[in-house]
Amino acid sequence: xxxxxxxxxxxxxxxxxxxxxxxxxxxxxxxxxxxxxxxxxxxxxxxxxxxxxxxxxxxxxxxxxxxxxxxxxxxxxxxxxxxxxxxxxxxxxxxxxxxxxxxxxxxxxxxxxxxxxxxxxxxxxxxxxxxxxxxxxxxxxxxxxxxxxxxxxxxxxxxxxxxxxxxxxxxxxxxxxxxxxxxxxxxxxxxxxxxxxxxxxxxxxxxxxxxxxxxxxxxxxxxxxxxxxxxxxxxxxx
Amino acid sequence: xxxxxxxxxxxxxxxxxxxxxxxxxxxxxxxxxxxxxxxxxxxxxxxxxxxxxxxxxxxxxxxxxxxxxxxxxxxxxxxxxxxxxxxxxxxxxxxxxxxxxxxxxxxxxxxxxxxxxxxx
Lengths: 238, 120
Prior knowledge:
The complex is a heterodimer of chains A (about 240) and B (about 120).
Chain A: E1 3-8, H1 12-22, E2 27-32, H2 35-42, E3 49-52, H3 61-70, E4 79-83, H4 88-97, E5 101-104, H5 109-119, E6 129-137, E7 144-153, E8 156-161, H6 167-177, E9 188-196, E10 199-206, H7 211-227
Parallel strand pairs in A: 1-2, 1-3, 3-4, 4-5
Antiparallel strand pairs in A: 6-7, 7-8, 8-10, 9-10
Helix pairs in contact in A: 2-3
Chain B: H1 6-19, H2 24-47, H3 51-67, H4 71-86, H5 91-118
């Protein structure tokens, strides 16, 4: 089944490259050079995923997101923000307006593809499996939280934990796991928490990660992969 | 020293193979056609103390430069955005200096980019 994606960006080179990266036989890509142009497209097409730049003349990306969310049939349609700006206020402003995810330009093609596939609910085979057990303590060292990373790549991870916690605490814990890798709580979005007999499975995405962060995660993934029994693993992360 | 990150060019060439369309040539033509005007407008905006407008132009140029591997250009544009954002003492002069560096960088980037895109 075809998925229809609308990319809204005032920069022609970003539009052209993102379209080429995402082009596939299973997708139809529409492009718009402004928020108004994007809104016009909505009357003709049913969109499965929006990719929106933030800094655009006439109508800012945040205003476009708000307008999209006011349309009943797009209240839950995924919106991926792809912006050259990655400060906390940019990310939180976009998420508060209704964005589902956030990625900072320049974007690696594989990361964009993975994010889009995930938002469209399509499984990709590039999700490597890693298992890491450990504990997290608070700044005073009092609170000890057992966790296990079940899977991880540059766009997100799945963590298993035994203790029930509220969402805010989970985000804090995950930010602490990546404390030395320049990732704050505002850059982690909890996608899903599944509870089963006292065990909590948390799926989360990294928002607005930098190139440097993504490279560090890739290196970490490779280290973890090498430390494990390879017979149980997929291919070595590149 | 090369002003262009070849990895960025190779990435676009891979996309050309994937899509079967010419992409690099159009991107470079657009870049070479629009950048001189962007640089001029940035300086005009600075003269008129329209700092936000100058930063918006730098934002546009940053993205286009990064896509084509013009890293130095992208970095200077990022500096302009940050300086306007932070508004530290004397930021106007700092932005003016950045625009001068951008012009100098563009002179060197332009010919290299032209050779890369149109040599074949």
